[in-house]
Amino acid sequence: MTTTEATPAPPPAERIPPRDADAAGLVHRPGRWIDGWRAEDPAQWAAGGRTIARRNLAWSIFAEFLGFIVWQLWSIVVVQLPAAGFAFDAGQVFWLISMPSLVGATLRLPYTFLVPRIGGRNWTMISAALLLIPTVALAVCVSSPATPFGVMLFVAALSGFGGGNFASSMANITFFFPQKEKGFALGLNAAGGNVGASAAQFVVPVAVTIGAGTAVNLPLAGWIWVPLIVVAVVGAWRFMDNLSHTRADLAASLRAVREPHLWVLALLYIGTFGSFIGFAGVFPKLIVDQFPRFSSIEVGSTAISLAFLGALVGSVARPFGGRLADRFGGALITVIAFAIMALGAGGLILVLGRGTFGEFLGCFLLLFVATGIGNGSVYRMIPTVFAARAGVEDASHRSGDVGTQRRTAAALGIISAVGAYGGFVIPQLLGLSTTATGGYATAIAGIGIAYLVLMIATAALYLRSGRA
């Protein structure tokens, strides 16, 4: 008589009836729900898991790309307002720039927890559809110079819907990939979104000036994105999936909040991503103030703003930061990134008011590249730190059990929310600096010192022997 060793039954969310399982051992239920997802299982990953993960990543990137466009629309719209007949003072302009970041950062927390509540695919559809509200509202309010500032500020706040998309997208994608590939996957997802800031700053000046003569057709800054948003909603409905094991786990979320390293990593992310989104928002305004002759380049009947270069190089650098962190460790790459950011800030102080535009642009591009690399490396540190704190051996290559993955997903959302507040703080600091001193050097000096402090903290906490 032959006996076989009994295999424990999987939990209910992952119980897979053999007749319904595909080649990868996955069950596909109505509503594009998938049961039995195990990203760390090499056999499942090779049998079809990789294909599913990459398909979801592609549509997540597209939806997040549009989210960043909407989030950053006002950073380039404000410099076009005088040509459209609006007259706002410097303080009001900086509020219009920073308000979307304030709202977007605040929305990132609920957006994160809605992914496990209703499914990543379902929430991507809803959050993409919500982008129609700020784009249409912008198109309407900028059509008349008589629109009050309060209404303009409220519509700018609505653009915060686009900022919330990042947290939910990153929390969703982290479930799809094994630990050893998370850095590059999250880097690509984030970079695809981040480049939306650059796209907005490049496309909007072209769209609003082409064929407009001496005026600007500013409502087009909102209308041109509506068809793409519809495509994103339909694409998410047709091609993305919900993973059943990402269900909400309040206890895991509370454990993540009580983890001291979450708040350390959040501070590091304020320094990297907060700097990226904050400087991306004010870069068009800074060019207009410091080098008005280079605020736009006339090409035929259109105008191109060079401000898009900052967000572009920062976005492209982000996945490389994740890749470098995969290979050399997130802490080391983060320390190097903060050192370069401090160097860029120091260079800016030297060239402000007395340097050439080329020097000004070079210092800013160096700063943006470093923020992009730091964004990728800090985000790569998060799952590693949480896996290590859960006692997972070889935490840089293994993500731990489902509970650890849920805590990590919650941490990703919380940290991304806290970090995004930098997009509000930096424009406000620069606005206060120019009001109090007549220039930006004081604020940039303070920001540079903060980079050095964060560099030292990262080295002390995560590079010392035995600490990681």
Description:
The chain is an all-alpha fold. The chain has a single domain (33-462), classed as MFS general substrate transporter like domains (Growth Hormone, Chain: A, Up-down Bundle), CATH 1.20.1250.20. 71% of the residues lie in helices and 3% in strands. The chain has helices at residues 42-77, 90-118, 120-130, 132-141, 149-158, 160-174, 179-209, 220-223, 226-239, 250-258, 260-290, 308-328, 330-351, 357-389, 402-420, 422-437, 441-462, and strands at 27-29, 33-35, 242-243, 297-299, 302-304. The strands form 2 sheets. Strands 1-2-3 form a 3-stranded mixed β-sheet. A two-stranded antiparallel sheet has the order 4-5. Strand 1 and strand 2 (33-35) form a beta hairpin. Helix 4 (132-141) packs antiparallel against helix 5 and helix 10 (250-258) packs across helix 15 (402-420). It starts with 26 loop residues before the first strand and ends in a 6-residue tail after the last helix.
Q: Report the helical percentage.
A: over 70%
Terminal residue distance: 52 Å
User: Structural class of the secondary elements?
Assistant: mainly alpha
Number of helices: 17
Q: Kindly report the name of the CATH homologous superfamily.
A: MFS general substrate transporter like domains
Topology pattern, helix = H, strand = E: EEHHHHHHHHHEHHEEHHHHHH
Please report the first level of CATH classification, the CATH class: Mainly Alpha
Mean pLDDT: 84
Main sheet: strand order: 1-2-3
CATH domain fold name: Growth Hormone, Chain: A
Could you give the count of β-strands? 5
Largest beta sheet, briefly?
A: 3 strands, mixed
Strand content: under 5%
**Low-pLDDT segments:** 1-19
Which architecture would the CATH scheme give at its second level? Answer: Up-down Bundle
> How many domain units?
1
Taking Cα atoms only, what radius of gyration do you get, to the nearest Å? 23 Å
